[in-house]
Amino acid sequence: MADDRRPVGPGEITRAARASFAGAPDERQRFLLQRLVECLHGYASDVGLTRAEWEAAVAFLTETGQTCSERRQEFILLSDTLGLSMLVDALDHPSPTGATESTVLGPFHVAGAPLRPMGSSTVEQDGSGEPAWVTGTVRGTDGRPVAGALLDVWQNAANRLYAVQDAAQPPGNLRGRFRTGTDGTFAFWSVRPVDYPIPDDGPVGRLLAATGRHPWRPAHLHVMVSAPGYRPVATHFFDRASPYLDSDAVFGVKPSLVADFVPHAPAEPGAPPGWEGTWYSLEKDVVLAPLGDEVG
Ligand code: BEZ
Ligand code: FE
């Protein structure tokens, strides 16, 4: 019996796969999938992908999925370390002039942090680190203070771990939500964050090691700020003293987000009661863009 299957070349395969989505009723979905086919096929052709390499990639992605759990998101980590998270953030949130720039959310944000009074502390466990007094004002791009803005903050402890990673920390440790008063200011006690490696005991960590990359992030405080009538922003306050500012494993550093933890002697006014070592202060304002001021 004659075989009527014609040899199919790369171009025809790409055209057929692209055309298979032509009937997708959602226009945006159709566009996204057809361009995905074109770009994936273009990549495979470009690099001359071998079957063995493709199988290795499928095994890697399978393990990435299997590493995910309620407490671990290896796919986000993969996106972060490929720079894709920061690219999507830049494309989706171009900062209007003057507004605080956003950066990666990361996998350690947990909704529902304790609501705390302004001026109180996020520290729920002794030994969490060196005290840091964090202050600033939330303003609009017009310079006016934003009353009632909600700050959601989270960071790691001296052992490098976030509470969500560490069963030995109370779940609310170094996490908190604060609401600004009428003058838009915020102030709370925390600890000076420390540099830390992103979780590197899974497939993403192996990828970094195999390619000569380190897993470190420069010390930072996560701050997410929202207020009625303004675009929310998820950002970091980075410690200028970190040696990893120029090689963040997830490409999250922007110069405007770097700040100084100013050291203070124990005897200086404002020192935390009972603390006998150096403590720090950090002052950083947050500027929000009004809704309707979207760029792009
Ligand atoms: C973080 O800053 O918490 C983070 C961001 C990306 C990957 C891992 C951690
Ligand atoms: Fe972080």
UniProtKB/TrEMBL annotation:
- Ranges where the Intradiol ring-cleavage dioxygenases domain occurs: 106-261
Q: Which Pfam families match?
A: Dioxygenase_C, Dioxygenase_N
Per its UniProt record, the required cofactor names are:
Fe(3+)
- Keyword vocabulary terms for this entry: Dioxygenase, Iron, Metal-binding, Oxidoreductase
Source organism's superkingdom? Bacteria
- InterPro entries named among the record's database cross-references: Catechol_dOase_N (IPR007535), Intradiol_dOase_C (IPR000627), Intradiol_dOase_core (IPR015889), Intradiol_RC_Dioxygenase (IPR050770)
The answer to whether keyword Ligase applies is no
Domain Catechol dioxygenase N-terminal, residue spans: 26-100
Task: Write out the similarity annotation.
Answer: Belongs to the intradiol ring-cleavage dioxygenase family.
* Protein name as it appears in the record: 6-chlorohydroxyquinol-1,2-dioxygenase
Q: Which organism is it from?
A: Acidiferrimicrobium australe
